[in-house]
Amino acid sequence: xxxxxxxxxxxxxxxxxxxxxxxxxxxxxxxxxxxxxxxxxxxxxxxxxxxxxxxxxxxxxxxxxxxxxxxxxxxxxx
Length: 78
Description:
By secondary structure, the protein is α+β, with helices and mostly antiparallel strands. It has one domain. It is 37% helix and 19% strand. It contains two helices and two strands, in the order H-E-E-H. Strand 1 and strand 2 form a beta hairpin. The protein starts with 10 loop residues before the first helix and ends with a helix.
């Protein structure tokens, strides 16, 4: 492995991240999260980065229109 390749995600990380992104997008589209701050808010999951051991993932989201970003992120973290 080259020195600069160590920080690139593996194919498995990329695949798992994409599966999580797809699942999160479906959950959000169906409105399965019951939080008043998420009512009538369209959210795009742009990327999910998974740790090398696949134990942790970070989802990057954007509320469409850019409105209520702080409230939306806070609601998703609950």
